[in-house]
Amino acid sequence: MTDRVLAIDGGNSKTAVALVDTDGRLLARVRGPGASPQNVGLARSLEVFDGLVREAARAAGLADGDAVAVHTAAYLAGADLPKEEEDLRVAIEARGWSATTVVGNDTFALLRAGTADGIGVAVVCGAGINCVAVAPDGRTHRFPALGRISGDWGGGGHIGSEALWHAVRAEDGRGEPTALLDAVRAHYGTPSVAEAVQRLHFEEVEFDPHALCPLLFEVAAGGDAVARSVVERLVEEVVVLARVSLTRLGLLDEAVDVVLGGGVLTGTGGVVVDAVAARLGEAAPAARVRVVDVPPVVGAALLGLDAVGASPGAESRLRAAYARDLNLTRSG
């Protein structure tokens, strides 16, 4: 057996795999397509994960047939319920990558990536929206995060759909005037939104609501009241998720971290983040709202290192490795 930890961050749009030793040295990392079991099915998810794990093992100099790691920490989109986590754990253990395996929702990896101890609240808004919280005594709070059937509001696809919805209603008179109308027309290259809707209906063009999400934020930044109302609704949802989680764990008055992540939140600058910090501060004045500054796969690796009792300094060493790469990317 070996003293390595295998970390998997499986998102809806991409999958990241890292192989680290128990001193926090990054041995290999690879990325591939999204492989959420909810989107592509369990068999395809495992196929993607296995291919990336084998690629990481080769990059780390391991021979075929070698044990990849002593422990696998897999934090995956689509692992929303305990049964899903258990089914995925059993399936991943059967791959034989390591002696032990933990599977959890990817939002827990975000929380660990954004904190020194994995304590606090994490809210992610990317393809979908989710929130988890962990108390100092180990108690957790989470939401099912199954979409509208479990009461969710938000996510890139949902917000993009709102842009189209408001544009349609502005054009046909059911809604308020909005600059989203011209923006959506331009996006689809049609003289009217009605024509775009017809083309979408007959599948002459692909409907990708995620592509409309940045458009809505651009229109909102220009001062459009309708678009801004959607952004305000997102801010409200993020605050509600965090506040409820803090309340349920008795942390509303504690100095804990509230970590925000996901492309929708991190890609809007301070538009959403600053508003969330201000509004959450009214209910939880001691809470520290912050945006995660390393990829969630770092959180998965740190949770794995926590599980095996990694050496002191392992966390700072791993964070430094990703920080160096991030600085090189920015300077390039």
TrEMBL record:
InterPro entries to which the protein is assigned, alphabetical: ATPase_BadF, ATPase_NBD, Euk-type_GlcNAc_Kinase
Keyword match Nuclease: no
Keyword Transferase: yes
Transmembrane segments: none
Keyword terms of this UniProt record: Kinase, Transferase
Domain annotation ATPase BadF/BadG/BcrA/BcrD type: ranges: 8-304
GO MF entries: kinase activity
Name this protein carries in UniProt: N-acetylglucosamine kinase-like BadF-type ATPase
Species per Swiss-Prot/TrEMBL record: Saccharothrix saharensis
Lineage, broadest ranks: Bacteria, Bacillati, Actinomycetota, Actinomycetes, Pseudonocardiales
